[in-house]
Amino acid sequence: MKPIQVGLLGIGTVGGGTFNVLTRNQEEIRRRAGRGIEVTMVADLDVERARSLVGERARVVADAREVIANPEIDIVVELIGGYGVAKTLVMEAIAAGKHVVTANKALLAVHGTEIFEAARARGVMVAFEAAVAGGIPIIKALREGLSANRIEWIAGIINGTTNFILSEMRSKGLDFDVVLKEAQRLGYAEADPTFDIEGVDAAHKATIMAAIAFGIPVQFDKAHVEGITKLQAADIRYAEQLGYRIKLLGIARRRDSGIELRVHPTLIPAKRLIANVEGAMNAVVVQGDAVGTTLYYGKGAGAEPTASAVIADLVDVTRLHTADPGNRVPHLAFQPDALANTPILDIDQVRTAFYLRLQVADEAGVLSRVTGILAEHGISIDALLQRESAEGEQNTDVIILTHDTIEGPMRKAIAQMQALPTVLAPIVSLRKEELA
Amino acid sequence: MKPIQVGLLGIGTVGGGTFNVLTRNQEEIRRRAGRGIEVTMVADLDVERARSLVGERARVVADAREVIANPEIDIVVELIGGYGVAKTLVMEAIAAGKHVVTANKALLAVHGTEIFEAARARGVMVAFEAAVAGGIPIIKALREGLSANRIEWIAGIINGTTNFILSEMRSKGLDFDVVLKEAQRLGYAEADPTFDIEGVDAAHKATIMAAIAFGIPVQFDKAHVEGITKLQAADIRYAEQLGYRIKLLGIARRRDSGIELRVHPTLIPAKRLIANVEGAMNAVVVQGDAVGTTLYYGKGAGAEPTASAVIADLVDVTRLHTADPGNRVPHLAFQPDALANTPILDIDQVRTAFYLRLQVADEAGVLSRVTGILAEHGISIDALLQRESAEGEQNTDVIILTHDTIEGPMRKAIAQMQALPTVLAPIVSLRKEELA
């Protein structure tokens, strides 16, 4: 049978990896797919560089539209990134009847509903395993492997840059700014790291996973997003003393009143497997009502890990492109006419436990006032740690771990505590999840 | 559309779980599959008990052949287990044109080639996600999620009973016999635990994974199988001192000369994620050339985790049963005409590192003779630990960790060391893998 012909839009890191892995493993892949899969056309603005990468094996053009217009091309792989030209080209490829494989989490988290509807109407597939957690087949696990389950929650380390930074901060006791510079020097963080360190990239991925897990449309604008830039080394140390690690988690959780969708630094018990995921690695924990807890771990970025996911999608599309569209796995796991309009909860309505650090004057009655305020708001205390003040020190740190509570009342309690004259510095508050 | 009709053969633990999860999550599953999936018929010798479980919702019969003969039944789920009647019924179901879902690892590891060929010839699917690692979608990950990769190796904790026992032996410092009794009392081990503790169950699963990973037929008879019954608490302690944990691993590894397929207790670095998988949990590490290291973790047994895998297969079959068989994922991941005849290596040809414990006379020259023998066989030493002998003791333990070596020469070296008059007890040898 004639090989499936693939056109790459963009041959940067992931595009180059995809081309190389497809070439290196072509025999292995053909033995699996029952048919060859070949990149026969590449569009990249830097034509010279693209030509030096692919040699004679594919035609290189500057204009992506030449790829889309080529009737020989079966599948278009979009590796340009961002919401702009990538969106236009994906929509044009769909309109031209091409199947699309993309690693573009930003595009899908923001415009997924429009893109998937266009693909459905045109009878083509948009596959995006590479958009979440790189080489880990988490989209397939959620969409197919766990299809028996009512998913209860997902919690993932889905941004390698921030996990590398947090691992270094903890193991070396360093501050955020110092480690960020080191991460940039080593290539773990980009020159402009904003999307990573502010949690935006993780929120894109969490948005996509939430949609697939709960059968809701992608709603990035409803996600609560906090990064790690304000995290202090002191809190990582205190957390450790209490048996916790701090990770930037993307969390999606089903509640009776709606869906929680949030990205923020989170204390998790050090004994959990996911707490021990270090460096730039990714891991996602999925809790299903039948299967219980499952975890998926691997590299979340990089040329070949991401290419692994892109090519798995190419194999899937190759297998299914002649099948009745009704037999395909729906883009968001649930049939398009069966999506739910379950609301995404406001952060004030979220239920979670808290870690609080208060710098207080070392005098009688302080703890009683602080705990009194928490009690007024119905917030119960799980653990309390008061650092002994050193000789001559006038103030001390009080660390409080609460039980699960609603965030709105917690914020009010924190504001009241902050107003106490004996509370000497801004209160640090972090969310804590047991993940059990 | 009319619901897909499923017939269960056997409604024990997993069958009951499957029935309950399908009933409880029917709406969620229908929203995903686009079609209802209903158990309409159950065959079980204990008709009364089966009726009390399913009530009016399914017809209960004693004779499995009534299910197979029913033209309304689309998919037969075999949950009887074993090689005997289960094999006959699976072959009959295939002959009757039914798709089959099974959790029967023993059957597939031994008779898989015959069964898959019959299914191919008849144009039906045999799905078996539940046969390996319970609720973890590892078959799907290997067969589809990692299809871009040349798989290098797989190492899995794929038997919950033995992992529970090893976890207890380590954390409580107890001997095997004591913990086995405790495991039986708690329901983690069966009354006749032979298949679990002798490594046979793990070898069934490793055999299936090896076939899928490397595109070779299932060859259970070629697997090297060792259990945990001879493991001593002392070696778990020494391993810990050296920074290792002992786990019963199923290992499949590609070498230039063939495939290693083996199950045995294995020292692995304590810092690896899989070393921290405790209790009855399962985990599988897969190393692919593009994706690098990935890990999959979850419950490997139990009613609902296993049902999660059975039902995921039901959804997959529901989606694909009207599709062209050429578009389906091949049973063993590779197209049936593209399987390789790569040999399974004899254990003597396997390459691995070793942990040796020698009880030796506490006198001059012993170490020199022992290390001399290793050197003669070209085996290099990675680490050596000599326990200080207590006051008045005449003998001491010497622990040696070797670098990777071929097992054949290692066995010869061990025999020579054993013959030394200063070696006072049977030498303990365990394999060690870095899993990196």
From TrEMBL, chains A, B:
**Entry superkingdom:** Bacteria
Could you tell me which residue ranges the ACT domain spans?
355-431
Residue sites binding NADPH per the record: 105
| EC category name | oxidoreductase
Enzyme Commission no = 1.1.1.3
Q: Which UniProt keywords apply?
A: Amino-acid biosynthesis, Methionine biosynthesis, NADP, Oxidoreductase, Threonine biosynthesis
Q: Where is the active site?
A: 205
Question: Which PROSITE patterns does the record match to this protein?
Answer: ACT, HOMOSER_DHGENASE
Residues holding NADP(+): 9-16
Query: An example of a Gene Ontology BP annotation on this entry?
Result: methionine biosynthetic process
Pathway(s) it belongs to: Amino-acid biosynthesis; L-methionine biosynthesis via de novo pathway; L-homoserine from L-aspartate: step 3/3; Amino-acid biosynthesis; L-threonine biosynthesis; L-threonine from L-aspartate: step 3/5
The residues listed in the UniProt record as binding L-homoserine, with positions renumbered to this chain, are 190
Question: Which GO molecular function terms does the record list?
Answer: homoserine dehydrogenase activity; NADP binding
Q: Which family does it belong to?
A: Belongs to the homoserine dehydrogenase family.
Full protein name: Homoserine dehydrogenase
